[in-house]
Amino acid sequence: MLRRRRQTWYIKVRVPVDVQVLDGRKWVERSLKTRDCVEAKRRYRVLVGQLEQRWEALRTGLTAETTAGKHIQSLATLVSQQSREGLPKAEARVLLMEALESLLSQREVDSEGNPSVTEEELTVIQDGFERVERSDEYHLSSGVDDYMSDLAQRGVTEAHQNATGATLRALKEWIGPDLPVQALSRSQASSHVDYLRAQLAPGTVKSRISKLTSFMGWLQQRDRVSTNVFSGTGRQVKEKVISRRRPWSSDELSAALQQLPVDTPEGQLVRLGMYSGLRTEEMSNLTADDVEQHGDRLVLRVRASKTDAGVRAVPVHREIHKMVLGMMSGGGSLLQFESAAQRRGRSLGGRVLRVLRESGAISEGAVVHSLRNTFATKLEQGGVSENLGQQLMGHRKASLSFGLYSGGASIEQLITAVDAVRY
Fold this sequence. Notes:
The protein has 423 residues and is mainly alpha-helical. The chain has 18 helices and six strands. The strands form two sheets. The chain has a three-stranded antiparallel β-sheet, covered by helices on one side. A three-stranded antiparallel β-sheet has the order 4-5-6. Helix 1 crosses helix 3 and helix 3 (68-84) runs parallel beside helix 5. The termini are far apart.
């Protein structure tokens, strides 16, 4: 069709359905670069002729090596979508058949005149025709594809698209065979939520329910389903009660040291936390280059932390002096362990908690990070001043005198403070 936009003529032509898979477009829209109506009609005829030649070249360009199954499957996906949008099913069948005949006409034939088709191609071709036959039923796989396309068109962030895609793929895998979205029931939705609860943390389950509810709401707005079966299923999930972090008791520390040997990264993490008060990530990021000699003592240099005050020097307690020397001997990271996680400390800390909680060595509230609570408690019990404790812990000093004007305590003062920690 010819269109006029701001005095200039444009052409908009629909791409034939059987070519859309090959061309990648549904419409061709171009400027004819003229304001004259007569000239526009002439250029229109020329351009349409060029497009028809291109489409025919695409059709005939399907060589004998072209995978028939792959082509028909792609075409069937497109045709079945258009059938849902109003394309008569009989016309959809004709389009598929014409494309298949055009493709197979270039194949070698056997003695009976039948074109050569592999078993795999035949299966996919049959599936393509079946998809068209059931195109009046809107299946879950189609709904997921359309929903994800809509998210992309709306400019939703890639991270949200990836999380939504993972959630919907998990639903499809859990359900099994593809089924019409109208067949999804509340009991299935409730069972799926129970399945997620058994696998994931409560917060993650609620996040997935939110995405599933949004998906069903999207289908409901388009009259694909009558009810949102995931609406209200969040009530099945109870938030985990998180105990307040607390210092480790003497019995818990004793049990942990017995179960986690000093030559393991788990045991080294606990001992470092007990005697340095470092954050978990700070400990996991330490390298041999971050250990300095100061007289007969070692000093840990924290070069990266969550706050400016966290960049500090912490003397190594005498109780773990030998352990740290051994950790330095291998070079590289002090804590040697394999982890693909971006936050290595959280990964190792999780391993420590699993071991200790499974054995009953520690109870709720005692986590690796709360070894800082334990260290701070021991500093206070050892008579260490608050400003020294804040410097060792990596906290900003509250007072104007020490926080703004002081250059900080000396290494000798910090060594004395660390040595006040007793277990």
